[in-house]
Amino acid sequence: MNEDKFNNSMRKFLKTVGVTSQREIEKAVRSAIDSGKLKGNEKLPAKVVLTLGGVNLSYEVKSDIELE
User: Fold this and answer.
1) 1-17 pLDDT, tens digit each
2) For residue 50, what are the contacts with CB-CB under 8 A and spacing of at least 6?
3) Residue 53 structural domain
4) Are 13 and 31 in contact (CB under 8 A)?
5) What Å distances lie between residue 65 and 29, 57, 60, CA to CA?
């Protein structure tokens, strides 16, 4: 295995996931506030499930996203 290539590929994937996820969360929250579904002071439960094909990996991360 080429460690450098593996590391770079993993970093690129994680950066894309992080940037895209943040953008989508921000759009969804702003839309919910604009429509009145949220007030803007909530604590929202969040969950990400990471799976990796070819190996038996399924990893779940849970946390809260606080709006105020």
Assistant:
1) 999 999 999 999 999 99
2) 57, 58, 59, 60, 61
3) 3-66
4) no
5) 10, 25, 16
Answer for the pair 48, 61: CB distance below 8 angstroms, yes or no: yes
Residue 47: strand, helix, or coil: strand
- The number of distinct structural domains making up the chain is 1
Which stretch of DSSP H or E encloses residue 5?
helix 3-34
The alpha carbons of the chain give a radius of gyration, in whole angstroms, of: 16
Rounded distance, CA 47 to CA 7, Å? 25
Which 8-state DSSP code applies to residue 37?
S
The position carrying tokens 């991360």 is: 61
Q: What gap in Å lies between CA 32 and CA 45, rounded to an integer? A: 15
Give the pTM.
0.88
